[in-house]
Amino acid sequence: MIVHHPELRVLALRTPTLPPATHTNCYLLGQGALTLVDPASPYDDEQAALFEALDALIAAGERPAQVFLTHHHMDHVGAAMALKARYGLPIVAHARTAELLQGEVEIDRFLNEGDVLEVGGGGRWEVLHTPGHAGGHLVLHDTSTGAMVAGDMVAAVGTIVLAPPDGDLRLYLASLARLRDLAPTVLFPAHGDDIRDAVGLLEHYIRHRHSRTDQLRAALALGPASPMELVERVYADTIPAFIKPVAEAQVRCHLRYLVEEGEVLVGEDEVWGLT
Ligand SMILES: [Zn+2]
């Protein structure tokens, strides 16, 4: 079912994303010639629902014009090639996204910081390059309303994971601060409902990352350890076992940040300790 907002329309599709999130939002930007953001589902039944919704829009006089990908993760790109095949749509994304999707999704045009994505009906979305969660992550900013299409910078359900090789805490914090300073009026995330307290949530995300870094400092103060040992020290039994590899990836990103800060060194056999 397509939900209408003043700024855009959205169709949530079930995807292989990280629980508790189960769906990824496919946003439809513009009127008439539509830009589809993150058409994500690889599942046949969900793609059929997307095609049905688009065919109904076509019958009503609109048309899909292009696919826009916020970043390369598999829970954002699953229907992109199917849409290209069915409707002949070009796919636009950052060059780093194209590099990471090579052989899977063919990007037709690159977008970068400072570009403008024009959509049907005269809408203009400014393109912001916001690395940190993914190297090629892009956010769209409608300066006339203050709305942002936020991709995976924040989520209204679940959490944002930073994982190597592209996850970078320093860049992520800088990108979050940058979005906060632009004072968006509403964030449209890839997962969950639109976020009306946009600045409050961005500040919460920044504080949360700093408190996680403090927890890691406290865990390191107990003595040098491997990333997985640090996961055990920080999270103990508070997370299920299947999440621990994800937590380990996050710990690695936070460790790299502390190395850059000069607070941590990595020794033999991947044992990390305070300097
Ligand atoms: Zn992602």
Report a brief summary of the structure:
The chain has 275 residues and is an alpha/beta fold. It is built from eight helices and 14 strands.
Portion of residues within helices: 25-40%
Unreliable residue stretches: none
Stated plainly, the CATH topology of the largest domain is called: Metallo-beta-lactamase, Chain A
Largest sheet: 7 strands, mixed
What is the arithmetic mean of pLDDT?
95
Oligomer: single chain
* H-E string: EEEEHEHHEHEEEEEHEHHHEE
Descriptive labels:
alpha/beta; Metallo-beta-lactamase, Chain A; elongated; 2 domains; Arc Repressor Mutant, subunit A; 14 strands; binds zinc ion; seven-stranded mixed beta sheet; 275 residues; single chain
Topology:
Elements: E1 3-4, E2 9-14, E3 23-29, E4 33-37, H1 44-59, E5 63-68, H2 74-77, H3 80-87, E6 91-93, H4 95-100, E7 109-110, E8 116-118, E9 124-129, E10 138-142, E11 147-151, H5 169-181, E12 186-189, H6 198-220, H7 227-235, H8 244-260, E13 264-266, E14 272-274
Helix pairs in contact: 5-6, 7-8
Bound molecules: zinc ion.
Zinc ion binds next to loops.
Would you kindly provide a written description of the structure presented here, covering whatever features stand out?
The protein has helices at 44-59, 74-77, 80-87, 95-100, 169-181, 198-220, 227-235, 244-260; strands spanning 3-4, 9-14, 23-29, 33-37, 63-68, 91-93, 109-110, 116-118, 124-129, 138-142, 147-151, 186-189, 264-266, 272-274. By secondary structure, it is α/β, with parallel strands linked by helices. It folds into 2 domains: 3-196, Ribonuclease Z/Hydroxyacylglutathione hydrolase-like (Metallo-beta-lactamase, Chain A), CATH 3.60.15.10; 212-274, Arc Repressor Mutant, subunit A. Strands 1-2-3-4-5-6-7 form a 7-stranded mixed β-sheet. Strands 8-9-10-11-12 form a 5-stranded mixed β-sheet, with no helix packed on it. Strands 13-14 form a two-stranded antiparallel ribbon. Strand 2 (9-14) and strand 3 (23-29) form a beta hairpin. The mean pLDDT is 95. Zinc ion binds next to loops.
